[in-house]
């Protein structure tokens, strides 16, 4: 093949690659929240998967067990929250609401005999179907939104599963087809991979620890506080406190501050002491707020990124992109840090782009901290 034909062939293949990347980019842009949340679950679960894979040789079985270890507890927590919510709704619901709902229906079983005796009454009650139709439409819209949310959640979990199962193959493909282990590109990708695992897993671990601590704090408070100022559904509040830890800066304040305000109101109504609610506020602030943000999260994240940078990534990501910005913000911060570590010395100073980012203190040095790289070659083996 002559030089001209070779050049034309490369241009055609380059056009095909650009088109393929554009198509993939279009799908990622349309489902960016789904993809980013799937990456979050993957990196949050990968340390657990590494432990499971050491004991289970089959890759599919190891990935399945890892996902079940994450999904089943979440489903249990959601089921518990649903049961508690239904119980509380049943406790405060007005029985007259059921009577009113039955009264709207023209086929009320208690009035069927009357309708048979007087069919004209049915025609007279058809005008009452308007409110019922509105309620049915609202319910259908809600169910549609819920179904769409479950679909996106299923896609995210599926993406996490396949990344856990085939992560070793992907790493091997990158090393053999894209960038070798000694190249700067592979060093950059490994640095991003390691930092994302530490940041995301640190977030997941922080939420778990805060949830467990909140269960102890809230239930312990109810064990010693007077009944007049006891916390309602303390375990459910503890679960919500753990989930609120995902929200930067505010964290558990979303739960324990309103709960304490409720207890103060109850103390005022019952003419009880304000000391127990005040003590709960102080303990919650120290154990569920200050300690996780200043000590726990940096330690669990491995201090690979500056804590202030991660904080701004969470806050600005959520402010700019919405709910999925909580996961996209740290990803962008990690990419920017690794680009700065590898490319800035070359662009600004003119140094060669080496595989090792010497002197980088704000991001993971992948050639020093190889333990956090993608699953090893043993995971690349076939089932």
From TrEMBL:
Cell compartments where the protein resides: Membrane
Membrane topology classification: Multi-pass membrane protein
Keywords associated with the record: Membrane, Transmembrane, Transmembrane helix
CC terms in the record's Gene Ontology section: membrane
InterPro entries for this protein: AI-2E-like
Transmembrane segments: 12-45, 65-86, 139-164, 199-221, 233-256, 268-291, 311-337
Protein name (database record): AI-2E family transporter
Family to which the UniProt record says this protein belongs: Belongs to the autoinducer-2 exporter (AI-2E) (TC 2.A.86) family.
Pfam families: AI-2E_transport
Species this protein is from: Halobaculum marinum
Source organism superkingdom: Archaea
